[in-house]
Structure formats: C-alpha cells, structure tokens
Amino acid sequence: MLASQMQINSIDHLILYSETMAAKRTQPYVIVPFILVLSSSYAEKHLTGGNGTKTLILPRTLEGVGLNPDEDYNSYEEDTWLPTKPSLPPNLGKPQRCDYDRCRDQERPCVELSAASGCQCPGLSGPQEVPEAPYLKEVSQQGSDAVVKWCAPASTVSHYQIVVKDREPLVFMGLSRMGVLKDLEAGATVCVEAVNAAGVSSPVQYSCMTYEPESDGSLALKAGLIGGALGLLLLLSLVIFLLWRRKVCGKSGGRSSSHTTDEASL
Question: Is 136 strand, coil or helix?
C-alpha cells in the first residue's frame, strides 16, 4: 500500500511539473500578440492626433491635371537645360582709337572717321571756346621759299593763319597743316594761329619759330662734299677696272707663251 501511494504521489508531481512547464512555454506566445495590439493602438492615436479617428490616405490621381494615370512618367529621363550665354555684338567691345594724325596735311576730320568706323577720337574743345595754339613743327628752306609745317590743336578750328611781322597773315583752311611763304627773310619770326567762331589762339613758344635759312657758305660746303664723294667713287671705280683688266691680260699672255713653247719643241 505504501509503495503504491508513493507511486501515485510521484505521478501527481510529474503531472503538475508538466503543466507548469507547459504554462511557461506558452507564456511568450501569449505576450507577443498582446504587445502587437498595444503598439498598433498607440500608432493609430499618434497619427490621428489622439482622437482615435482613422485617417484614410487615398492614392493621388493624375486625371485632374490632364495626365494619363496609366503612364509611368518616372521612367522618362529629365532633360538637362543649360542657359546659353548671349553673344555680344562685335562692336560692343572697347572702341579703338581712330587713325588720325594731327600733323598730316589735308587730314580727314576725326569726327568723320568715327562716324564711318566707330573708332574713338581724342577729346576736342567745342566751337564756343577759343582754340589752343597749334604746334609749329618746322620752318624749312625749299629753294627760295620757306615751308611751314604745324600740327592741329585739341580744339575746333575753322581755319589757320601764318603770321609774320610786317606782313599780311596768310589764311589756310582747317584741313591744312602746311603753308609756303615767298621771299622770307632770314631771322624772321613765324607764328601759326588757330581760328574759330570764338576767337583766335594766343601765340606761345611752341607756335612760333625763327626762320634760319642755310647760308651760301653752307650750301657751297655741301656742294663740295657731294662733288668730292662723287669724284672719290669715280676714282675707285677706275682703279678696280684697271686691276681687273691687268689680271685678264696676264692670264691671256701666259696662255700664249705656253702655246709658243709647245710649238718650238715640236
């Protein structure tokens, strides 16, 4: 009896132990669904602002904007558009200075050159201002005459006049840069003046010059030097010719003597 009772008790303990272990094994499977339910409930409250109302998100349709909803617009590659740099006109750069020479006789006005080619002219004062004095380059002798050359000032000029003491002024047009004086005495002071509607330029140091023609002695000296140079050149040419002729004659004489010796030996 005692042995059978102990066997029954051991069986009961085994059953109790088995039930306890089974309960422990099933406990995690019961907790996991409970956690999922709580997390989904919290997410719904957070997304709906805590009022428990579910928000239904509908897919965006393209029919309202005139596009085909069946078309996959994401499959097209985006075209890269780069703005092109506008081309500048050729004459929009820095203008060049006009080919204008203040000292050139009958020079075309710079205003006309600028209008024709778009070049840049030097600054000029207007006709309402008295012009500056021209720059007198030279007063040289040409035979019995005196040649006067000057450069235009940076002013508007209608005409020029050459002034010599005890003489009437000689008037030249605004494009002129040269004038000729007849029978000008040595030592005479020559001045060039610029004129426009506002007045006449004042004589200054660079607009006047003393005429100093070459004397007869200097002319004779130049003539002698030129004649001597020509005579020396002629003499050298004669010497070279004589040396060349002597050399040619020597060669021909040597050849004839050799021919004579050969004939005598025969």
Answer: strand
pTM higher than 0.70: no
Q: What is the DSSP string of 75-124?
A: GSPPPP--PPPPPPPGGGSPPPBP---TTSTTPPPHHHHHHHH--BPPP-
Cβ neighbours, 10 Å, residue 5: 9
Cβ–Cβ < 8 Å for 136, 192: yes
**How is residue 188 written in tokens?**
């005479």
Spatial CB neighbours of 59, under 8 Å, sequence gap ≥ 6? none
Q: Which residues are CB-contacts of 158 (< 8 A; sequence separation ≥ 6)? A: 127, 174, 195, 196, 197
Give me 232's structure tokens: 């020396």
pLDDT tens digits, residue range 22-45?
Answer: 555 545 445 555 555 555 555 455
